[in-house]
Design a protein that fits this description.
Layout: E1 10-16, E2 21-27, E3 33-36, E4 42-48, H1 56-59, H2 64-67, H3 70-113
Parallel strand pairs: 1-4
Antiparallel strand pairs: 1-2, 3-4
Length: about 110
């Protein structure tokens, strides 16, 4: 093997934040946080949301995503706010343009009448 081209292969703790399930294994993944393991040593920790301890297939329970409305509902709630704000801004712009056009038309009518 060539030297200095391979990532550091070391022990890392993977932590499932939804069920507090931890496993110590070797990996090359980079982590900025550390955690104290059961042996009293500090190891890098990688946090993630889903493991066999929290997945519905393994636990037989409903996923937590269903409690929050599902992925599609979460997407709609997150992005409908942005769409609504964009539509409001667009309608305000259109209203100001329409008001400007009506004012110009009224001025043109007054000028034609005099």
């Amino acid at each position: 093997m060539r030297k200095d081209i391979h990532p550091d292969y070391r022990q890392v703790v993977f932590l499932d934040v939804s069920s507090d399930f931890k496993v110590l294994t070797k990996s090359t993944v980079q982590a900025s946080e550390t955690i104290e393991w059961e042996d009293g040593k500090e190891y890098p920790v990688v946090r993630f949301d889903l493991s066999s301890a929290s997945h519905a297939f393994y636990t037989g329970k409903e996923q937590a995503l269903n409690d929050r409305g599902g992925r599609i509902q979460q997407f709609r709630e997150r992005y409908n706010k942005q769409v609504a704000e964009d539509e409001t801004a667009a309608s305000e712009t259109a209203a100001s343009e329409t008001a400007g056009a009506e004012t110009a038309a009224a001025e043109a009518t007054e000028t034609a009448d005099s």
